[in-house]
Amino acid sequence: MNVKEKLQEIFRDLFDDETIELFDEMTADDIEDWDSLAHINLIADIERSFGVRFSTKEVTATKNVGEFIRVIESKLG
Amino acid sequence: MNEYSFNELTVGMECEFSHSFSIEQLEIFSKLSGDNNPLHTDIEFAKAHGYESCVVFGMLTASLLSTLGGVYLPGKNCLIQGVDISFSRPVYPMDEILVKGKIVEIFESVGQVVIRVDMYNQKKEKVLRGKMKVGMING
């Protein structure tokens, strides 16, 4: 399972929506329940699932799903 | 009331306290919530259905998570963001409920702490288990 597939599972679990299909340009505007609190839980779930840690700066600078994937991939080496 | 800041919290920190609910408090909760199911306020009804006494509302027992976060860990700066709980056994009026909390994860990037919660009755039987996600009002 690659990073995008694993991230998609995280999104589907968090938002209880098995129909979510991630795309690079996807933002909070594309998922109704992706509010500020969901964003906190999303980051925590990503950190837990991938075994990585973000900085606060990375969290605020990451604007869409594609950027998340690239940041995760860079941390996984 | 404790007043931990986010930076003072560490994985493994624990706290515990005890609490019990009276039948009168169940009646008050019934009025507050509108849940007038007799299982919680009618002893004869509860006994007829196999329970020792009135059963404390699960959500009233769960309210002790609010106390855990808001008073003990982290205390005054607590902002509960979510809870995920299971009720293991019925709680009865005047059961001495021991509430135990332990920090199991900290996510500094988003200022979130995850607290494992377990509650036991006076027989040391687990009555509730779960996790609570907590942020800080000054975070």
Provide a compact summary of the structure.
The complex is a heterodimer of chains A (77) and B (139). Chain A is an all-alpha fold.
Mind explaining what this structure looks like?
The complex is a heterodimer of chains A (77) and B (139). Chain A has four helices and no strands. Chain A is mostly helical and 77 residues long. In chain A, helix 1 packs across helix 2. Chain A is globular, with a radius of gyration of 11 Å. By secondary structure, chain B is of the alpha+beta class. Chain B is built from four helices and five strands. The radius of gyration of chain B is 16 Å and the shape is elongated. The model of chain B has no long low-confidence stretch (mean pLDDT 96). Classes of the chains: A mainly alpha (77), B alpha+beta (139). The interface between A and B is medium-sized, with 14 and 12 residues.
Strand content of chain A: under 5%
Main sheet: strands, sense, barrel of chain A:
none
Tell me the total number of β-strands of chain A.
Answer: 0
- Helical/strand content category of chain B: alpha+beta
> What is the assembly state of the chains in this entry?
heterodimer
Rg of chain A, alpha carbons = 11 Å
Percent helix range of chain A:
55-70%
Structural class of chain A: mainly alpha
What's the alpha carbon Rg of chain B, rounded to whole Å?
16 Å
Specify the overall morphology of chain A. globular
Largest interface: A-B, 14 and 12 residues
Number of helices of chain A: 4
Q: What share of residues of chain B is helical?
A: 10-25%
What are the low-pLDDT stretches of chain A, counting only 5+ consecutive residues below 50? Answer: none
